Amino acid sequence: MKFPILSLAAALLIAPVFTSCGSDDPFEDSFKPNPNNPNPSGGGENPSGGGGENPSGGGTSSSSYSELYRPQIHYTPAKNWVNDPNGMVYVDGTWHLFYQYNPYGNGWGNMSWGHATSTDLVHWAEQPTALVPDALGDIFSGSAVYDADNTAGFGKGAIVALYTAAGTHQQQALAYSTDGGKTFTKYDGNPIIANTTRGDFRDPKVFWHAETKRWVMSLALGWEYGIQFWTSTDLTHWREASTFTTEVGRCKRGQWECPDLLRMNYNGQEKWVLIVSVNPGGPVIGSGTMYFVGDFDGEKFTADDLSYPLWLDYGLDNYAGVTWSNTSDGRIILIGWMNNWSYSGDVPCDPWRSAFTLPRELSLVDYQGKPVLASRPVKELDKLAGEWSTLATSGGSINAPSAYRLQVTLDATVANVISLGNSKKEAYELTYSPSAGSLIARRNSKTGAATFNGSFAIPSVTSSLSSTGNELVLDIYVDQSSVEIFTGNGSMAMTNLVFPSAIYDQVTLSQPAKEVRYQAFSSMWK
């Protein structure tokens, strides 16, 4: 989580409105303010410079979710600014997605934790704002865990949120919920990790390490290009254990943020993956997410000797992604912020600004004897998908007004150009190069709206495919303002925003494919 820290006076202007949830709300009951965690209030000028006089608070909306560019298979709040996903946890059949949120307007500011819930990772219900600024500062990014054994003393099964309180300094704080995430109480002993010296010290991501019977926290050091690891037995008292950094200069072109340390399987062996978001210094311009593969002994992470940086996503618009904790089936599921700090404040979306990527299941796959962090959209998306329709091998028209999945199987030995277009003569072009083993996307004035920010139009966005064999399968997920591309096994992901005046509903290929087919998605809002 980046950007200027607001003054305390500005922070105290937040006053979320709590409202009843509709019948599609997984919680069913109304959210109510917690008397032990009163919302700060105040008058005066809206510090964000946008929106109305009062924060939306979430939970209800007059939005039809049919505005120009409004995503139909990606979660967005009804209105206002969002960025990093936070505090994602699965509890009792409900997926909780918290996120950086401005309850007052459509620009960055008043950082709070918005909240949405789902029972299937596809249909989301916006909930009231969960955490708002206090005397310690704004509520920056963090995580949440399910304390099954009451290690913190807040009650068995409490949801414990750990976040950065961003005031004069960035410090780590805690809040807990004993009603399944409906309300949170801020811990009386905040900050749980104090800081009066470091400028960047944020984004705690916490998990339980069974072997040492301790909680482990990853913390980002921003422009110090490091990730600290801390340990605790009770979530409230923490001990610094180690710091990871790298000597690879290409990994040090931007501040390090939003870490996530994951235990994974690679060819039958345990490996650990450390995800680090960087801004600037991404694979193209602005922000991006890199990862390191190595080992972790409960206190120290040691990276393997690989060709870093390795990128989670080669596109421009997947940032600050982290994973859900307490998943019932052991799946590792990540979601990211679908935007880029280079132009995030100017994207032409109203009354909301920014969406989240499709939820993606992560795994380690092998490419030329080395591990690659693969990502594939979650299987739950099938709930929105219709039957497959087959097109000619040279392309054709797509009947999918909301969104769709286009699957193109190419001869991996033949160069090809895939063009997604519409009747407005707008087009998004993908060039496959077998000799380079790469896919190049072109985002420019032909793509749709692109002049709102001078950094948005990019002549070429190049992805290494990390793929072998005689066939190349590309899964292309097209929504109203985004295109997400994955290889068949997830070894490559490329996420880019686009703003056509109408969804791309035609596909053409410069050379015949082996197969072209698509599935139309129904809207998640209907």
What does this structure look like?
The protein has 526 residues and is mainly beta. Helix content is 1%, strand content 44%. The chain is built from 1 helix and 35 strands. The strands form 7 sheets. A 6-stranded antiparallel β-sheet has the order 24-35-26-31-32-33, with no helix packed on it. The longest helix is centred in the N-terminal third of the chain and has 4 residues. It is globular and about 65 Å long. The two termini are 32 Å apart. The N terminus is likely disordered.
Shape: globular
Overall SS class: mainly beta
Overall average pLDDT? 90
What characterizes the major β-sheet? 6 strands, antiparallel
Low-pLDDT ranges: 3-56
How far apart are the termini? 32 Å
Determine Rg (CA atoms, Å). Answer: 22 Å
| Tally of strands | 35
What is the element layout, followed by pairings?
Elements: H1 8-11, E1 80-91, E2 94-101, E3 112-118, E4 125-131, E5 138-147, E6 158-166, E7 170-177, E8 185-186, E9 202-209, E10 214-220, E11 227-232, E12 239-244, E13 255-266, E14 269-279, E15 288-296, E16 301-303, E17 310-311, E18 319-323, E19 333-338, E20 352-353, E21 355-356, E22 360-367, E23 370-377, E24 385-391, E25 395-397, E26 403-411, E27 416-421, E28 427-433, E29 438-443, E30 458-464, E31 471-479, E32 482-487, E33 493-497, E34 506-509, E35 515-521
Parallel strand pairs: 1-20
Antiparallel strand pairs: 1-2, 2-3, 3-4, 5-6, 6-7, 7-8, 9-10, 10-11, 11-12, 13-14, 14-15, 15-16, 15-17, 18-19, 19-21, 19-22, 22-23, 24-35, 25-34, 26-31, 26-35, 27-28, 27-34, 28-29, 29-30, 31-32, 32-33
